Automatic annotation (TrEMBL), chains A, B:
Domain Endonuclease NucS C-terminal residues, every copy: 111-230
UniProt domain Endonuclease NucS N-terminal PH-like: residue ranges: 2-102
PANTHER family named among the record's database cross-references: ENDONUCLEASE NUCS (PTHR38814:SF1)
Superkingdom of source: Bacteria
UniProt xrefs under CDD domains: NucS-like (cd22341)
Primary subcellular site in the record, as a coarse category: cytoplasm
Name of the protein in its database record: Endonuclease NucS
Swiss-Prot/TrEMBL keywords: Cytoplasm, DNA-binding, Endonuclease, Hydrolase, Nuclease
Enzyme Commission number(s) of this protein: 3.1.-.-
Species in which this protein is naturally found: Flavimobilis rhizosphaerae
Family: Belongs to the NucS endonuclease family.
Encoding gene per record: nucS
Length: 231, 231
DNA sequence: CATTGCATGTCGTCG
DNA sequence: CGACGACGTGCAATG
């Protein structure tokens, strides 16, 4: 990894065109040739960047450029597309290189998959007498997160999100349309389950006869722990 | 901006829990206190990070930790939520600070807004005799990209995407449902316009009686340049 | 390899 | 300040 702090300007052409005026920035060149241009604010997203696979070519400025203060021109070319990033380097404040080796990577816990597992275990959160049919119930247009059966034997399709927004309701609606065409399992109720449900999503769901269920992740995890302790 | 290259481990708790095993990494601390942990690969997204606003507290390791090789513990606490990132610093290879100042920011061209402007100017791409009613036609559920009128006086609602996928068709469908409830402008035709339209989106649109229009950005820009030259 | 759906998404914009 | 849609979205899992 090479770290450079320098006054620089940049031009990107690819899916769009963009320009970055002259200013002092951090330039990171990773081992795979990818490049990040960071300012001293914003968030983790760089002002501009080039994703791997790509190649970096450093060249000397021509006479006019040198007269304007350029000390180097970096051309970063994406290997598989015509995306291109040109960085004009002016005064360099820091230029250092370090060998980092391969990273073991991030270990995650607590994503949507976990919510789905918990709700499958605690399917009676839908109401007493509900039973699990199966998780990831396959249909022609993709898997329904959970398919369940209500106390009267009717089918229930459940879509789970961490945060429930309109596109989740649309997704569930497509599943319901499809499932309700199958006379073997129709009629199918829909349940939209999420840790938080946005008002517009709730309105749309209600308008379509889809039930909303707010999930309390901590409480569900707590029940799970208690179960684990008892058995 | 402070740059540190060090052997480190990290734990994040917030919207999820995650752990980063000991390895050599780049740690960037920005002026607003935000922190990025980068490995020497991947992409522009850090392995782990904390977004502003947040505060960084550096503390000494306790005896056990010091015996294990820790030289410092960094606790990054988000100011408005309970997101927390703890970084355990072991051997430090580089530790440098630079003042970058405020960045003038990125200047963009060629996004969806530009496509919309071009199609508004070149509305006859829909077919001869079409006229523009207005861009960003407001409805209760959001703005329709373009509202136009066909040669026979009927209304046309246009949704524009760079890449046309299913959710764009869903969005246009919601607008059409709403607009067609208004007797003053009903019936309203739908046109789904994009530089590229995915097969599934085309099938769904066609099934719903929505017309698909593939936009050639370069050609449209070319026409625009010619116009600009002529007038 | 193309498609799909998630993300600690981030980021602007508008009400 | 919250909600919503766009993004050079990136990214992994899957058919």
């Amino acid at each position: 990894m090479r770290l450079v702090i320098a006054d620089c300007a940049a031009h990107y052409t690819g899916r769009l065109s963009a320009h970055l005026p002259l200013a002092r920035r951090l330039v990171v060149v990773k081992a795979d040739g990818s490049v990040l241009l960071h300012s001293d604010g914003g968030s983790y997203k760089p002002l501009n960047w080039m994703s791997p696979p790509c190649t970096l070519v450093v060249s000397e400025p021509d006479d006019d450029e040198a007269a304007a203060g350029l000390t180097a021109v970096w051309d970063v070319q994406h290997t598989k597309s015509d995306d291109h990033l040109r960085i004009e380097i002016y005064e360099v404040v820091l230029d250092t290189t370090a060998d980092l080796g391969i990273d073991p990577g991030l270990v995650k816990e607590g994503v949507e998959a976990h919510l789905q597992a918990l709700l499958a275990e605690q399917i009676e959160l839908l109401g007493p007498g509900h039973t699990l049919v199966r998780r990831e119930y396959m249909t022609a247009i993709g898997p329904v997160d959970i398919l369940a059966r209500d106390p009267r034997g009717g089918s229930v399709a459940i879509e789970i999100k961490r945060r429930g927004e309109i596109d989740g309701v649309e997704q569930l609606t497509r599943y319901l349309d499809l499932l309700n065409r199958d006379p073997l399992i129709a009629p199918v109720r829909g349940v939209f389950a999420a840790q938080q449900i946005k008002p517009q999503a709730r309105v749309l769901a209600t308008d379509r006869g889809i039930e909303c269920l707010v999930l309390d992740y901590d409480a569900m995890r707590g029940v799970d722990d208690v179960d684990a302790r008892l058995f």
